[in-house]
Specification:
The complex is a heterodimer of chains A (556) and B (200). With 556 residues, chain A is an all-alpha fold. Chain A contains 17 helices and no strands. The longest helix of chain A has 37 residues. The relative contact order of chain A is 0.09. Helices cover 76% and strands 0% of the residues of chain B.
């Protein structure tokens, strides 16, 4: 074999992945492809979960059960909760934006474990399909996304077992992703880049990933025990055999309370990226932001039993968990004031991205206030299991996380596709979503305070009008998806060309072409030590933008 | 107060970044083992809560025999030491010695599993008798699954070292190191499990 050519050359000419749109259906190891896979897959599940939510709101326009049978109602609300949490918000705020942005922010060419990354993504579509198909095969799980025993043991077993299996797969995907983020942020930082110079989203993802790695396995173990109870008739959660249902609640909420932070901490990070760019000011209080995130991570692990104040928890436990939960308001409040201070006196361009970010700040503060109220035992006992809790939860995860997802899509769409979105359609989308969302969920506070229980298809006729208001809001939210979808599809082909850095931003993902080439930069990775250096000195911006990055996109 | 470092500095630092490819796989495995450990922690917490909170059903706790599990503990602790010897031997490039230690470790792991089976068959209670029995089988079974996997991994490493320049050698010790870390973890979990389940 004297003519054997250099193995390096032959390897390089071998394509890493299919070209064009086909690569989004391949086992690609490119972090940008995987990020968009997460995003689009998550959005499809969002549409399905949204359709289920619409079905719930249609059912609730009248006080009697007329739109669907009661057991189907239970299946629909279980699927809605599970899909929105495990298939939309968690994969998108973590997987989609995390995979796309973190390697840029740490100055790496890819994630630490690219193959594991692809495996983590490809666990999601089968798990989601399994979950949804269970409705058509045997009837889906009926016990809500919390799957409390004995309800989950007494309802039809097949749907519940399929639910457990798909949540286990999604949990595995989440853990693999978390390990990858921790390794990437801690180990793959470009030489010369310190931890305190990282963009805030890195810190948010580090904190989130620590929560994922510490708490998700506990949920997995709990669900394995639950499946033993269902299939093998063991008695872990069956008092007749010496078991204890409260143990399930403790183990479940040990994951599922941090899960709220897994959904909302990355959103905090994304907002901290978006606000400085669009108001041309440095992020206010970087260091306090970092410590707040870490405080939320630590506190988030020790507050779970505030979900169980009516489960016969002893007084000392109630006291501890009330105090710990109230404490979370401190770091969260610090973040809130920091965002407001970032906006204060800035040159704000009121585009769709910042509108959704400001919408997030308003909604999240309202959700946070009801959260502090719910942490107080006397109040919690009054509104437990009512629509007040539903309203609080949706203010956090929809008003919080989903608003940020939309804001991030408006912010990073030019980077993803190389084209701008239509701002007028974006503002219309924001208006419809914001009005629709508040019309849908604000009245539910009143419903809850007046005693309307959640998860029941029928209610006292005195609540009819307020429920119809809420349903009208839901209709607006459903309609608001249309301008967004139209905007995203037509801008992908006809939108104005964005250029490398349409927002004149300083974070490293903008210092390359749009969309970026396969290994992120044609040349060396830029060393960005001050990702929020807006407005400090006039030259700062110049330095970043004058740097002639001769970059070519891989899709030219 | 520059945002972007001068290009010369950047490219200099970049060279070191591109040429040195650090291996973070052991770090990733360690993070995974933390997650795995949390699963066990959940099981332990459940078991301890059952014991602390629940009224004792008549005849609910069966006295567990100690000799066999003590023997099991000793077997696993020795196997951790033998695995360590195997790793050292491979790093010194003494492949034959390494393979011998690996085989001894795998034998100890199999002996543990066999002895666990003997215990299962001689116990006076079954999986669904009561919550303590269920937790006992869930915990030891989940751990046994880990030992089974570990033993298979040891045998795979043993097979891959059969040729002097095979896939695992002193040039590429990662698969052996990863298996070793995992094996020590499984042993550590057993020690905690032994204390909580048998001694408490």
């Amino acid at each position: 074999m004297t003519l054997a050519s250099s193995p390096d050359l032959s390897k390089e000419s071998e394509p890493l992945q299919p070209k064009g749109w086909l690569r989004y259906f391949s086992f690609s190891v490119d972090h940008k492809v995987i990020g968009l896979q997460y995003l689009i897959c998550g959005f499809i599940f969002y549409l399905i979960g949204g359709a289920l939510a619409s079905a719930i709101r249609i059912e609730l326009t009248s006080p009697i059960s007329d739109f669907m049978p009661r057991d189907v109602y239970n299946q629909v609300l279980t699927l809605h909760g599970t899909i929105m949490i495990f298939l939309w918000i968690v994969p998108v705020v973590n997987g989609a934006f995390g995979n796309y942005l973190i390697p840029f922010y740490v100055g790496a060419r890819d994630m630490a474990f690219p193959r594991l990354n692809a495996v983590a993504f490809w666990l999601i579509p089968p798990a989601g399909l399994m979950l949804i198909s269970s409705y058509f095969i045997t009837g889906a799980a009926e016990s809500g996304w919390t799957a409390y025993p004995p309800l989950s043991i007494n309802t039809p077993a097949a749907g519940q077992i399929i639910w457990i299996l798909s949540v286990l797969l999604l949990g595995g995907s989440s853990i693999f992703g978390g390990i990858n983020f921790i390794a990437t942020i801690l180990k793959l930082r470009r030489p010369g880049l310190g931890l305190m110079q990282l963009p805030m989203y890195c810190w948010a993802m580090l904190g989130t990933s620590i929560l994922v790695v510490l708490s998700t396995p506990v949920l997995a173990g709990t669900l394995i025990l639950l499946s033993f109870d269902i299939v093998a008739h063991t008695g872990f959660f069956n008092p007749v055999m010496g078991g204890n249902v409260i143990v399930y609640q403790h183990l479940f909420w040990f994951y599922s309370h941090p899960a709220v932070y897994i959904m909302v901490l990355p959103a905090f990070g994304l907002v901290s990226e978006i606000l400085p760019v669009h108001c041309r000011k440095p992020l206010f209080g970087y260091t306090t932001m970092v410590y707040s995130i870490m405080a939320i991570v630590v506190l988030g692990l020790v507050v779970w039993a505030h979900h169980m104040f009516t489960s016969g928890t002893p007084p000392w436990m109630r006291l501890f968990f009330t105090i710990a939960t109230s404490f979370i308001a401190v770091p969260t409040g610090i973040k809130f004031f920091n965002w407001v201070a970032t906006l204060w006196g800035g040159r704000i361009s009121l585009n769709s991205a910042i509108l959704f970010s400001c919408g997030f700040i308003i909604n999240f503060v309202l959700g946070g206030i009801t959260g502090v109220a719910l942490a107080q035992v006397p109040f919690d006992i009054h509104v437990h299991d009512t629509y007040f809790v539903v309203a609080h939860f949706h203010y956090i995860v929809y008003g919080g996380s989903v608003f940020v997802i939309f804001s991030s899509i408006y912010h990073w769409y030019p980077k993803f596709t190389g084209r701008m979105l239509n701002e007028n359609l974006g503002r219309l989308h924001f208006l419809l979503t914001f009005v629709g969302f508040n019309l849908c969920f604000a009245p539910q506070h009143w419903l809850g305070l007046n005693g309307m229980p959640r998860r029941v298809a029928e209610y006292d006729p005195q609540f009819t009008f307020v429920n119809q208001l809420s349903s009208a809001g839901a209709l607006l939210m459903a309609i608001s998806t249309l301008p967004f979808l139209w905007n995203v599809f037509q801008s992908a082909f006809n939108g104005p060309i964005a250029g490398d850095n349409p927002w004149k931003a300083l974070t490293p993902e903008w210092l390359t072409s749009s969309p970026p080439p396969v290994e992120n930069w044609e040349g060396p990775a830029p060393l960005v030590k001050e990702p929020y250096g807006y407005g400090e000195t006039p030259e700062t911006l110049e330095v970043a933008l004058d740097k002639d990055l001769e970059l070519g996109g891989d899709e030219k | 107060m520059t945002t972007v470092a001068p290009v010369e500095e950047a490219s200099k630092e970049n060279i070191s970044q591109e040429e040195v490819h650090h291996d973070h796989r052991l770090f990733g495995l360690a993070a995974f083992l933390v997650a795995d450990g949390m699963t066990f922690a959940g099981f332990f917490a459940a078991y301890l809560t059952f014991r602390a909170v629940n009224p004792l059903l008549p005849g609910a706790i069966y006295e567990l025999e100690l000799p066999l599990p003590t023997l099991n503990t000793v077997l696993l602790l020795i196997s951790s030491a033998t695995f360590h010897r195997a790793g050292q031997a491979l790093k010194r490039n003494e492949t034959d010695l390494c393979r011998r230690w690996l085989l001894i470790t795998a034998t100890l792991g199999s002996a543990f599993l066999a002895s666990q089976m003997v215990e299962y068959f001689t116990l006076p209670f079954g999986l669904t008798d009561n919550v303590y029995a269920s937790t006992f089988y869930a915990l030891t079974g989940f751990h046994g699954l880990h030992v089974t996997l570990g033993t298979l991994m040891i045998l795979i490493v043993w097979w891959q070292t059969r040729k002097p320049n095979g896939r695992i050698s002193s040039e590429n010790v990662f698969p052996l190191e990863a298996t070793e870390l995992y094996w020590h973890f499984v042993d550590g979990i057993w020690v905690i499990l032994f204390i909580i389940l048998y001694l408490l």
